[in-house]
Amino acid sequence: MMMYEELRNQVISLLSKQTRLDGRKPHEYREVKVETGVSKNAEGSAKVKIGDTEVIAGVKLEVMKPYPDQPDQGSMMVNVELYPMSSPEFETGPPDIFAIELARITDRAIRESKTLDTKKLCIEAGEKAWMVVIDVCTLNDAGNLYDAIYLAAMAAMKDAVFPAFDGVKLEYKNKTEEKLPLSRVPVSVTVFKYGDHILVDPTNEEEKAIDARLTVGVLENGNICSLQKGGDVAIVADDIFRMVDLAKQKSQELRKHL
Amino acid sequence: MGEIQVKDKEVVVPGETLATGMDFLPSYGTYREGDKILASRLGLVTIEGKVIKLVPLSGVYHPKRGDTIIGHVTEILLSGWRIDTNSAYSAVLNMKDATSEFIARGADLTKYFEIGDCVMVKIINVTSQNLVDLTMKGPGLRKLRGGRILSVNANKVPRIIGKQGSMVSMIKQYTNCRILVGQNGIVWIQGEDPAQELLAVQTIKKIEREAHISGLTDSIKGFLEKNRGPNAPRPQAMNHGEGDAQ
């Protein structure tokens, strides 16, 4: 933290003038682009760009034996890979704490919103059920991977169709028209705090100097389905209200891309 | 008899033969192997009489004696500070080269420079083992407070500075920012108005992108004219007391 004291002061002094290092307003996103169907072999896929940040998500559907404690339900899983090509900070090897946190933030917003009806994923109770595997990989990290990864995962899920399955054989080449049973569209927005100021969509420069961040999963009706706090500085109840309000407001903007 | 294998101003890649025979001398960016002179990096060939050298087009900064650079403090040593030079080699700023003040034995060196501080320093020596020594004694050399740091390709620094500092003075005139350019590709910018500061950053990025295109000065001047806000200061006379790093 101390390492970026100068940068932090700079960001805060700019925020008090309602501007930022790259000239944006504090509550302004960079250009968001969502493209679906980018992978032929995945059941669903999406490429998301937020400014120069770029990620790809793919959804695979597998038939597995349901977990013993929920024999009548399918399941879902999110995995995030941070490739060294996308940032000098990322190393090869097993996922580090940051990759795991990103995957869990994404997983939580989708899971806790109950958007995916896992009972409908069951094919034969106790024997066969669909497992939704969401893989997200980064192409370039220019800041705010949190929202880019979430958006890619959700867009890929909405794009996904079931492959043909006759009860015995699974034919990935043969796609059906049937989409995943999604009842809601949760959107996850990460709000960052610097001193007394809050902003969304930081660049990687700004990300270095954050005090705290709060990722908020928001449903269409404005209900909150998930929260995750990060950063070294504590936040008080008043901060949380401000950050959640901003997240709700911004979620409407991001939802248009889904 | 030796023979030159390439034309003047030709682009060459590492390992390419530039000349044969012993009649030519290898200079910056080239080396001799047997009776050949080969290129050691990607660049433009410059032939000056018998001397063959390269103007590099890419690659990282390599510390050179006499360069004025901008670095940041990474470690407090027993009698000085370790400075990151934006290259493969870190440098040491010794206590006696940092200040003319008397520093008592065992004093807290963080009073002068703290880890993360940005400093404008000059390279006084680079040993054969690439140990770099720095000094802060000289005009314009100091700790940089506030402002923002921009990192550019070190090979484009001459274009950002321009002939006798013409390019950087032009940006200063139009944006009213204080700008310092280090030879290692680190640029420090400080302006009163965030919008003006941003314009300076965009201009420098544009120069970095278009460094190889001819008529750069005019295109940059046009860019500054076009993007200068309506309330922006009129370009004033040159030199407002701020030392350039050349």
Question: What features would you describe in this structure?
Answer:
The complex is a heterodimer of chains A (258) and B (246). Chain A is built from five helices and twelve strands. Chain A has 258 residues and is an alpha+beta fold. Chain A has one domain (15-255): Ribosomal Protein S5, domain 2 (2-Layer Sandwich), CATH 3.30.230. In chain A, strands 1, 2, 3, 4, 5 and 6 form a six-stranded mixed beta sheet that branches. Chain A has a four-stranded antiparallel beta sheet with strand order 10-9-11-12, sandwiched between helices. Chain A has a two-stranded antiparallel ribbon with strand order 7-8. The radius of gyration of chain A is 19 Å and the shape is elongated. The two termini of chain A are 36 Å apart. The mean pLDDT of chain A is 93. Chain B is of the alpha+beta class. Chain B folds into three domains: 3-56, Beta Barrel (OB fold (Dihydrolipoamide Acetyltransferase, E2P)), CATH 2.40.50; 68-144, Nucleic acid-binding proteins (OB fold (Dihydrolipoamide Acetyltransferase, E2P)); 148-227, Ribosomal Protein S8, Chain: A, domain 1 (2-Layer Sandwich), CATH 3.30.1370.10. Chain B is 20% helix and 32% strand. A five-stranded mixed barrel of chain B has the order 9-10-11-13-12. In chain B, strand 7 (43-48) and strand 8 form a beta hairpin. Mean pLDDT of chain B is 87; it is low at 238-246. Classes of the chains: A alpha+beta (258), B alpha+beta (246). Chain A binds chain B through residues 2-7, 9-10, 14, 17, 19, 21-23, and chain B through 114-118, 145-148, 194-195, 198.
